[in-house]
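Subject: Protein record for review, amino acid sequence with backbone structure tokens
Category: Structural biology, sequence-to-fold work with a learned token vocabulary.
Format: Residues in single-letter code; tokens as whole numbers, each standing for a residue.
Body of memo: The sequence and its backbone structure tokens, given next.
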Amino acid sequence: MTQPAMFARTVQQTNIWLKELQAEMGTQNDAAIYAALRAVLHQLRDRLTVEEAAQFAAQLPTLMRGIFFESWNPARTPESYRSREAFLAGVSQKLSAHPDLDPELASMAVFTVISRHVSVGEVEEVRNMLPAPVQELWPGYAA
């Protein structure tokens, strides 16, 4: 694949994810959709081991992989919070420029879109690295 085709493909794939996220969140605000995606991806990334973060990111469109790794400090991961509230507080903090966004709705929407595009096995690996109360935010989670 030529470089221009590769760039066009990653933009196309990312736009598919963003349109699905837009539908899940029920908003037309592009800035809010991007902020939700970024906030949830970063909160998720910071809870994963370095190895698992790399395995998960390998299944993201190239452009989204850049968003996922943006400002990452692997030496400070994985974070060790144990509650749903702590996860959502981290998402909320990352959404501070968009106080109208519900961090729980944003998390559930992003996890739903991830589940459509990332392999079932990888989703399970990622989900299993999270505390049980956070796992419940994923679609189809059964304890």
User: Anything to note?
Assistant: The chain has a mean pLDDT of 94. The domain at 3-135 is CATH 1.10.490.110 (Globin-like). The two ends are 42 Å apart (CA to CA). Helices lie at 3-25, 30-45, 50-57, 62-69, 84-94, 103-117, 120-128, 132-135.
